[in-house]
Design a protein that fits this description.
It comes from Streptomyces davaonensis (strain DSM 101723 / JCM 4913 / KCC S-0913 / 768). This is Putative serine/threonine protein kinase. It holds the Pfam family Peripla_BP_6. The chain is an alpha/beta fold and 716 residues long. The protein folds into 4 domains: 84 residues, Phosphorylase Kinase, domain 1 (2-Layer Sandwich); 188 residues, Transferase(Phosphotransferase), domain 1 (Orthogonal Bundle), CATH 1.10.510.10; 215 residues, Response regulator (Rossmann fold), CATH 3.40.50; 139 residues, Response regulator (Rossmann fold). 36% of the residues lie in helices and 17% in strands. It contains 24 helices and 24 strands. It has a 7-stranded mixed β-sheet, with helices on both faces. The longest helix has 20 residues. The relative contact order is 0.08.
């Protein structure tokens, strides 16, 4: 429990805030006093989660269902506001430690107390499932210990924030180590999933350790799906039922009613292990010492009038833009967005000697190109896009002209949002091509959604782009959630390894976990895989020696930092390993190219000079710009041509319906086939999906083949 920060509101809804109970990526949990004077836990969701148009509906539905909970062992929702700028919900406050803390402080639980714990939690789950809910995150941290029994908490948020129509292999809700195999695989879950999680909780409480081990999330998920649980130390009287709870197949797990019957009645007098009653009592006493909630500093002044404050939610300080100002900036109504906006607007007013502003005699559709001008990738995109625009405008009998406008995203999420707003301010704009990175693309996705303009992503592959089905964004490549197709096809078609070592660099675990899950949990590689976690700051020598001693057939480096990939390559060489090694485009950099000779790299861009299928484009680029096209030029060329294809069927209201036309009209370009699953709206990764294979040779990247050609003479 921590003091409120000066930037925290004093009041949310009719609840006076007293302290911070915790904070995370989803929001802040406060200790608050209700209008009736009772203590509660109030969870305020970060405003950016509400930018998803479906969020508020999901949040409202889930909190309404959770409000029906009134059983002995659950903590129901007392109040909620799905329409607030930062949606919130309040639940009863349980002034006790979590089961996770209790296990750390006092160790494993005896058999009798385990039975009581399991009986109460099974009864809680029976009520949860009866209300039409699946908890999805039953874990020791979500079980609070009160003097009269445990309480299962955290309803109404995880599902509202995490559930979308996306059901691809990479979508996971829950906590590794306690989620079910079907959750780990990203599949639809029901009540049996919560039973599996309860089995994990009971085993952890019985032994003092997680049932599927510790370490990186990918390793825990892999063991959850493919390996047997570690039940050594679980009391014999409970081992059988716990093992059934942990069955890999949902239909083989017991129902909660059977669990209740097996575990027996709850004994309120003897349910806590020795030593814990004192801890629970001490935590409860802390609330009695809390002072009356005081106002914090908002809008530059102390909130002193409690009566007035109870009727409103505190507004942000003047230094932060208001919601209205943020929406206007993202939507393009505010044109003075600093040097980026001024510079971009100035470029719009100038003539274009290359003919990419249209002839003036036909309807003009503006295409925005957004990326970092200091990045050579942006220059390649701009040249490819300009070539496509000028070629379109030179076609006799065309129905419209295209105009290309560019803006600098500055390389940060904040500046990219402003630049997207600047582009959207042009009423003739029909689409933004996002040439930015995984840092900027998610912010541009939100800004374009707020402005109601289509957004085509060419370069970024962040899993943060996975909720395209509720935005105006379409991807022209797969995200990390779908894995690296070129690498997987090379290993499966050419190397055909019996065992692959997957070296997971945990330095950027959140970014790399989706790829590791595809390789290990979902077994998209032929043969077995062996996961090797390498902690941040840790060297690769020990891992490399294990790989060399085992004689693994291939090494898959799952990381995104060139220096770390280079260190791995050098360690493997020192260990004497000479087998095939693969990675994706994020590791490319001078350090890695110097160390990774012979490595195979999968990318989302082709080499226009070496790719035999696009000789005509390369010749046109040379004629226009006096130089060979760089990587990403051909992909930008395809993006503009795909847009023109969609515009031919869009009619008059092109800005509002262009995305839907592109979504439902597959198209073949020079680098890829643009085709989408109409249910989840994701880019389909079939044949000719725009993935390419390269080899590192003499400190340079050499084109090998397209992904769909892998296995031919060039790669054997």
């Amino acid at each position: 429990m921590d003091r409120l920060l000066p930037s925290d509101p004093s009041v949310i809804g009719e609840y006076r805030l007293a302290a911070r109970l915790g904070a995370g990526g989803m929001g802040v949990v406060y200790l608050a006093r209700s209008p009736l004077g009772t203590w509660c836990a109030l969870k305020s969701i970060r405003a950016e989660h509400a930018d998803d148009p479906g969020f508020r509906a999901r949040f409202r539905r889930e909190t309404e269902l959770a409000a029906r909970l009134g059983g002995r062992w659950t903590v129901p929702v007392l109040a909620a506001d799905a329409e607030a700028r930062s949606p919130w919900l309040a639940t009863a406050y349980v002034p006790g430690p979590s089961l996770a803390e209790a296990i750390v402080r006092h160790g494993p639980w005896p058999t009798a107390q385990l039975r009581c714990l399991g009986a109460a939690l099974a009864e809680a789950l029976e009520e949860v499932h009866g209300c039409g809910l699946v908890h999805r995150d039953v874990k020791p941290a979500n079980i609070l210990l009160a003097a009269d029994g445990p309480r299962l908490i955290d309803f109404g948020i995880a599902r509202a924030v995490g559930v979308t129509a996306l059901t691809t292999d990479g979508s996971v809700i829950g906590s590794p180590g306690y989620l079910s195999p079907e959750q780990a695989r990203g599949r639809t879950v029901g009540p049996p999933s919560d039973v599996f999680s309860l089995g994990c909780v009971l085993a952890h409480a019985a032994t003092g350790r997680p049932v599927f081990g510790t370490g990186g999330a990918a390793g825990v998920l892999y063991r959850t799906v493919h390996e047997e649980p570690d039940l050594d130390g679980v009391p014999e009287a409970l081992a059988g039922i716990v093992r059934r709870c942990l069955s890999k197949q949902p239909e083989q797990r017991p129902q909660v009613g059977e669990l209740q019957e097996f575990l027996g009645p709850f004994d309120e007098r003897n349910w806590l292990p020795e030593g814990l009653p004192a801890l629970v009592a001490a935590r409860a006493a802390r609330v009695l010492d809390l002072p009356v909630p005081q106002g914090t500093v908002t809008d530059g002044a102390r909130v002193a009038d409690v009566a007035d404050a109870l009727t409103q939610t505190a507004e942000p300080a003047p230094s932060a833009p208001t919601t209205r100002r943020r929406v206007l900036a993202a939507g393009g109504a505010v044109l003075g967005v600093g040097t980026i906006g001024v510079g971009s607007w100035w470029r719009w007013g100038r003539s274009d000697p290359n003919g990419t502003t249209g002839s003036g005699n036909l309807p003009r559709h503006v295409i925005g190109l957004l990326g970092d001008r200091s990045d050579s990738v942006f220059t390649a995109h701009e040249r490819g896009a300009r070539l496509a625009v000028s070629e379109h405008n030179a076609v006799a009998g065309r129905a419209f002209d295209l105009v290309l406008r560019t803006a600098d995203d500055g390389g940060t999420a904040k500046t990219a949002t402003a630049a997207a707003g600047t582009l959207a301010a042009n009423p003739g704009l029909v689409v933004v091509i996002g040439a930015g990175t995984n840092t900027t693309a998610p912010a541009v996705m939100v800004a374009c959604m707020q402005a109601g303009v289509a957004h085509l992503v060419t370069r970024a592959d962040s899993s943060e782009l996975n909720n395209v089905n509720v935005t105006t964004t379409l991807l022209l490549r797969s995200t990390k959630t779908a894995g690296p197709p070129a690498i997987l096809q090379y290993l499966n078609r050419v190397v055909k390894p019996a065992r692959t070592a997957v070296v997971h660099d945990l330095t950027d675990e959140d970014a790399t976990l989706p790829t590791v899950r595809i390789v290990t949990v979902h077994r998209k590689l032929s043969g077995d895989s062996r996961l090797e976690d390498v902690a941040p700051g840790q060297g690769f020598d020990r891992t490399a020696r294990r790989i060399a001693d085992r004689g693994d057939d291939a090494v898959f480096f799952a990381g995104i930092r060139p220096d770390r990939a280079a260190a791995c390559a050098r360690a493997l060489r020192r260990a004497g390993y000479r087998g095939p090694c693969v990675a994706d485009e994020h590791v490319l950099g001078a350090r890695f190219l110097a160390a990774g000779d012979g490595w195979m790299i999968g990318t989302g861009y082709t080499d226009p000079v070496a790719d035999p299928r696009i000789k005509a484009f390369t010749a046109s680029h040379r004629a226009r710009f006096g130089a060979a096209p760089a990587p990403w030029a051909a992909e930008a060329y395809d993006a503009v041509r795909f847009i023109a294809y969609g515009l031919t069927a869009a009619g008059d209201e092109v800005r509002t319906i262009l995305r839907s036309e592109l979504l439902r009209r597959p198209w073949q370009g020079i680098t890829r086939r643009a085709s989408y699953d109409l249910d989840d709206q994701f880019f389909e990764t079939g044949e000719d999906s725009g993935e390419f294979l390269y080899r590192v040779t003499d400190r340079a990247l050499r084109f090998v083949s397209r992904a769909d050609d892998i296995g031919g003479a060039a790669t054997n």
